[in-house]
Amino acid sequence: GGCVVLAPSSVSTGGVSFVSFAGLGFMHSPQTGVTCTGTNVAFTNCDIVLNGADGISIVGTNRSVTGSTVAYVGCSGINVDGGDSMKLIPGNNLIANNNITRYARWKRTYKAGVLWNGVGHVVRGNSISHAPHNGILGGGNEGAGNNCLFEGNHIDSVCQEVADAGAFYTCGQDGKGWISRGNVVRNNVFTNIRNVDDHMRGGRTGVQAIYLDDQISGYLIQNNSFINCSTGMFIGGGRDNTVVGNYFEACDLAVHMDNRGMNWQNASARFPDGSLWQGLEAVHPFSPPWSVEYPGLWNLTLPGVPIGNAVTGNTYCRCQNFTDAAQDAPQWHSTIAGNTQQCR
Length: 344
What we know:
single chain; 2 helices; 38% strand
């Protein structure tokens, strides 16, 4: 092992490919610890700590950050971006088995443990903890976000200083709500997702473990555990989201669903000038690869109505309320059924 002390500038691997960095420390930069823009670059068992901006930023394809510690950085822990969203070509970047903790020390909001954009990334087996705002943030407003896999992560004690926020957060404004599809969030554990200031608790001012905001659509949320969360799962007006096989314990509310696209946010879904229509038309849904990857998207019906959501086969224990949408879901052409109260 070795130590790379960065003062005053950060390390950049631009133009470098097929290189591995193992057992190194990248620290004490007033800027981002490592900026990687090459292809086929791997960081393994590194310590990326005490940097003023982000821990590590990787942009491109076939790069990985694995088995590393990212801690005590001023902004985001790991930034990952890559792939071609128009052509749905994957970036094939891997963020796995890292300990990402106590980040966002300087910029307290919208600086996540993992900040992601692009297509076809895998974020797996990471521990993300102790932060004022998001654990994982990306897609939607942050940029393109399709066909990414988030699995086996443990997110604990984040969103501690904010309200109306999510440990896993993605937002469908800027015309991205209907097209940020194909993402899978499965086998993750969310614990202690609550803000710590009493006056921010409850209702819309609370925080959520998984927050699909502003008509984000086409997510699979499967086999996750939500323990001691203000709200476990939040579907903010989106469509075609599947929430299946999850476990909720000691949550104030397990699953929220609303129809904002039918009321206060209906302008974005109004044909032909609404931002969601403009975003849909921009990706040419009538033509490959979009017409092949997401068949039927080109023939979208009932814009603004949260149709096609399915909340089924989930279990819950000691939650104050399982859902606030049981009565409304049928008229929205969504399903909430087969969920049982059962403690582990």
